[in-house]
Write a structure and sequence with these properties.
3 copies of one chain form a homotrimer. With 369 residues, chain A is an alpha/beta fold. The longest helix of chain A has 18 residues, at 334-351.
């Protein structure tokens, strides 16, 4: 039984929520749950957000489908429609509404008795502090903040209003998280950046004196590591969305509304623009700049600054292994191959200079006797 | 002093455990510990599982070596043999037996007094709940389950019999783990998938209404992140083995007995077959299908569905950096090189069109002067 | 307000700390904080550590700049200098001194009342044990060790003097951490290595009987996973520095003073030398050897042993996506292209065998009629 199943809802509720016009249904149509076109059962709500899913819509058993006017003809006879301007955005809004219904805001004691809150911390009376949380001196926890179990907030750290930290987040001292953020379990914000001086064959530590500053409306997935700055701060702009297992090095600055998929690593002092999209497993070297609107393909490595928006890729194409072995050997010898081609071009150019046989790129045939 | 050293064991114990026949030893031969062929000392047990290790066996100081009949001649004169059908499987069985001897099942209070168990949770009386665990309402904890310190079990989550969760695992609400699973420290199961709708330059959250469903006999390493589904569930089949630091995106389905090495990232809605093996650091893009029995090389990116089992690879071969620089430049110019070769082919074809020698694709030789 | 801002310091303090000679300043020059050349304000201290930053120094508003004699002429007239032999090492030393001033050693109860310390553990009286820590039987915690909140120390594990474990580290049973180590939040040391025997389509677990042994002066970042050995131990040598989200497989041995950047994965039984540097996101396959002093570029995969120190690279160069598509197609056909070039070479050699026009690599012209 899925998380959104506890209670049915009405088509009219949806119109109240996202607007739009009902097609072949009235407001009292009762719905069981939200499901994909493929998995929907009679009684379910679904959505058609792109023309490439027309066929799935035509075959869907859903009873009500959120759809744009342009695609309304794709609905099967068995489905009513909720016609809206942006079906995907409406799906997002409905999903949030259903989630809130399925798991209403918690009530009960605001600070769990097992939490360990420093008397010099400022915790808003409306905040909820889970079991085992540890909150350091001089930290500030905003209104309606929710901290999951065992979350650790360092000294002088602060969290803006309405943010949710899931269990086991660590926010190191002095770091800040903005308002309406969501940080998933296990993420570590503000550990030391990777900075060492090489002295006589050993590494001596450079203390990391900067902080991490995270804007408003940022979401960060599970088990990420966002390092504090060496001197200045590491900054993640408003509205950024980070997936799981992402490393953000010290002094990195990420512009607003940039989305970063899972397993990405960003090295120290990189500057990422606004509205970028970085594919899963990609890497960005340090001390370079990625311009606003750049898109990096999955598992590609950015080795130089990018000054043009649009998609950039650098990944070896997947092949059956025997083909790969041949291609890899040929790739190793590619500079030699280029030399051989150059040699061929010269030889051909010379050989075609023979009397009466002008080559394409050879000397002017008129010069021939 | 290694974990398996506390107490000696007898060759006869091994025969009782895995069967087989002793060669040049009787059941009373006493052994100190299990070690690799290279590191074994006199008095130790070792194993020879593949012909390529014959030389290590011949040089080993082990007193008893688990071996197949086919390789028994590889043993040195100083070693007795335990001849079995599958030495590697016997090694596995012996290792498990020694581990259980070295660290017997815990006794003492079943629920640590510092744990925080919701009165509406169902915890089997035989389960062991470690210090600081937090167990949500309506969750179900099976028989003989062991939860390490600070593990957090969300509302309505459930864990099958005999599963072991090491310290600091987080199981989000509604997610389920099957029987006989092992989940290592720091792993997060059921955080929100990475789903957002783009609206006017901003990302609006798509609530993740699905769950995570993990089968029986699954092992998951440390600090992984397995996301809950957007609408339907993320599913990991029976017998799957996942290493550390692995990301599994929302709606992913992984077939039974698939093994995934460390640092792999699987994007949302990918379908992975049964009995696959995925090398460390590999990536799998979303919304594609990998067939049963496919094998993906380390750090290769799967960009399209795979319909043929067997090994697939896509990785740039490692080179001394100066060679790499030349190869990378040549690779960037590879399409141009191909054009040059095509041009050469044409030119050569034309140049060989000398009178009496018409080229296959050249202009009509009659036009030649 | 940055972490290093609470109290001003004097130029004379710096001379006392790192030596060197003041240029255009006396010991009473008062400084506000340490900043980069670009961000420094009047009153700040900065440093110039490489000739390539001369221009930044010339434009810097810092009041005092740590500099070598060779670069002292790069300072602007507004800045005094502290002339030393190794400005970067001095910056490191000053950063550590400022960090210690900004966050002095904690005082108060040595073992937090919420910690759960086994009566058979040996905890030095000078150690500080944070809230919610769990310390197993027979473990040994050295002098002046600091354990952050919720850190879990398994049975028979041990930690050397002066080491700092940040919140939520897990040290599995029997594992050891040396003296003066720093382990960041969320890191898991000693989870089971990824070892299974394949038996009839299923994976049977190989118990991991080895341990993890970490030397002195090692730093490990956040959310790493260092697996215990299968039979022998996983070993990380003295002075190694590991960044975040790194996987170290079972039986791996890493030589002293090797530095490993974030998101690296090292597969089981790899042997890494001393003084190596491994770039972010790189991968190292199992059962191979990397020699002392080898340097691996970011996101490169080491597939064979490396016997020569110096830089090794294997990464597909980043391109605008349309260029990449052409290059990827051409790469797949590269073996065929090589065959075409070979064919061209043969054809040209034959075609140039025409009377009176011997080809460079053609048959002996004397054979021509």
């Amino acid at each position: 039984m899925a998380r959104n199943s506890p209670e049915r809802f009405r088509a009219g509720d949806l119109v109240g929520l996202v607007g739009g016009t009902l097609l072949r249904a009235d407001a009292d149509l009762t719905l069981n749950r939200l499901a994909s076109l493929e998995h929907a059962q009679p009684g379910d709500l679904s959505f058609l957000a792109a023309a490439r899913h027309r066929r799935n819509a035509a075959a869907s058993r859903a009873s009500l489908i959120i759809v744009s006017a342009a695609l309304a003809d794709a609905l099967p006879a068995t489905a009513a429609g909720l016609v809206v301007d942006d079906p995907y955005a409406c799906y997002a809004a409905v999903s949030r509404w259903l989630a809130a219904r399925a798991r209403p805001a918690l009530t009960g004691p605001a600070i769990h008795p097992s939490a360990c809150v420093d008397p010099q911390a400022q915790v808003d009376a409306s905040a909820r502090i889970g079991p085992g949380c540890v909150i350091g001196a001089f930290s500030v926890i905003g209104a309606r903040v929710s901290l999951g179990a065992h979350t650790v907030i360092g000294e002088s750290a602060c969290i803006g209003d309405d943010s949710v930290l899931h269990p086991r987040v660590v926010l190191y001292p002095d770091c800040s998280v903005g308002a309406r953020c969501i940080i998933h379990a296990g993420t570590v914000i503000g550990a030391d950046g990777f900075g060492f001086a090489h002295e006589g064959g050993r590494w001596s530590k450079i203390a990391q004196l900067g902080r991490v500053s995270i804007g408003d409306d940022v979401e960060i997935g599970a088990n990420c590591a966002i390092d504090r700055g060496a001197l200045e701060d590491t900054v993640i702009g408003n509205g950024c969305k980070l997936d799981n297992l992402i490393q953000v090095g010290h002094n990195v600055r990420i512009g607003e509304h940039t989305a970063i998929a899972g397993c990405v690593g960003i090295a120290g002092s990189a500057i990422i623009g606004r509205g970028c999209m970085i594919g899963g497993g990609a890497g960005i070297l340090g001390h370079l700049t990625v311009c606003d609107g750049a898109v990096i393909s999955a598992m590609s490595l950015v080795t130089r600054s990018i000054s043009e928006p649009g998609l950039h890729t650098g990944v070896f194409p997947l092949m059956p292994n025997a083909d790969w072995e041949r291609a890899a050997v040929a790739l190793k010898r590619l500079p030699a191959l280029r030399d051989r081609v150059r040699q061929l071009e010269q030889s051909l150019s010379e050989s075609t200079e023979a009397p009466g046989s002008p080559g394409a790129s050879g000397p002017d045939p008129k010069e021939s006797p």
